[in-house]
């Protein structure tokens, strides 16, 4: 199975783009691991069949395409390249260390501490942040009006730019997640959001996308005959 190409550059919000990239990396890792497990199972079946006197699945080698011409210099061709693929955790950067201890009740008498053994694991953290904005409010007696400090750019309707971008990105742009599945995902990670809100975000009730589309349309009309 090969994941379809996803153009993450079309997602404007950096936080949303990073979350989707992490999710795609996890999916790709699971697909690769599943393929390896399938191969191991098939090899075990073949070996079992041979032990029983039968024949395993024929080993059909894939066709090999001719290698492209080598345009490297003589010095480059003489340089040895490391064999084998890189280690699985070679490119990972450890962000947290946690010590795992053995329950003393499990240790028999005479047991001696023999050091520690390192195991690397990856984790995806999706955490909801609830922000209380304290907006300054100024009263102008001469005009009997008030001036209220604006929210940071992108905050609208009680949600951050990340959530507002993530909903259409998952619902339309990249994975076409269904509305019930998208609602369940948001609530599972801790976002307090209703069905109607998700539907409005997917349907662009604010009209901001429509305004942008109209501006692009008018620009196109102005540049052509």
Structure, described:
- By secondary structure, the protein is mainly alpha-helical.
- The chain has a domain at 151-214.
- Helices cover 40% and strands 4% of the residues.
- The chain contains six helices and two strands.
- The protein has helices at 14-51, 74-78, 161-173, 179-188, 195-203, 208-223; strands at residues 137-140, 145-148.
- It has a two-stranded antiparallel sheet.
- Strand 1 (137-140) and strand 2 (145-148) form a beta hairpin.
- The longest helix is centred in the first third of the chain and has 38 residues, at 14-51.
- It is flat and about 90 Å long.
- The two termini are 47 Å apart.
- The model has no long low-confidence stretch (mean pLDDT 78).
Record the strand order, biggest sheet.
1-2
The major pleated sheet works out as: 2 strands, antiparallel
Helix content: 40-55%
Strand runs, count: 2
Q: Percent of residues in beta strands?
A: under 5%
Radius of gyration: 28 Å
Task: Give the gist of this structure.
With 225 residues, the chain is mostly helical. It has six helices and two strands; from the N terminus they run ααββαααα.
């Amino acid at each position: 199975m090969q994941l379809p190409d996803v153009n993450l550059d079309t997602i404007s919000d950096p936080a949303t783009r990073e979350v989707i990239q992490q999710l795609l990396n996890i999916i790709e890792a699971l697909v690769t691991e599943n393929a390896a497990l399938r191969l191991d199972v098939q090899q075990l079946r073949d070996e079992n069949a041979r032990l029983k006197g039968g024949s395993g699945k024929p080993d059909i080698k894939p066709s090999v395409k001719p290698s492209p011409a080598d345009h490297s210099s003589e010095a480059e061709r003489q340089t040895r390249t490391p064999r084998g693929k890189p280690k699985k955790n070679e490119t990972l950067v450890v962000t947290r260390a946690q010590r795992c201890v053995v329950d003393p009740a499990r240790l028999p008498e005479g047991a001696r501490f023999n050091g520690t053994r390192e195991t690397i694991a990856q984790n995806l953290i999706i955490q909801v942040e609830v922000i209380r904005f304290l907006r300054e409010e100024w009263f102008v007696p001469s005009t009997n009006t008030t001036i209220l400090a604006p929210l940071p750019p992108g905050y609208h309707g009680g949600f951050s730019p990340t959530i507002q971008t993530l909903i259409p990105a998952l619902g339309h742009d990249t994975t076409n997640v269904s509305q019930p599945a998208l609602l369940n995902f948001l609530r599972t990670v801790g976002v307090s959001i209703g069905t109607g809100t998700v539907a409005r975000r997917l349907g662009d009730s604010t009209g901001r996308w429509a305004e942008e589309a109209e501006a692009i349309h008018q620009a196109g009309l102005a540049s052509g005959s």
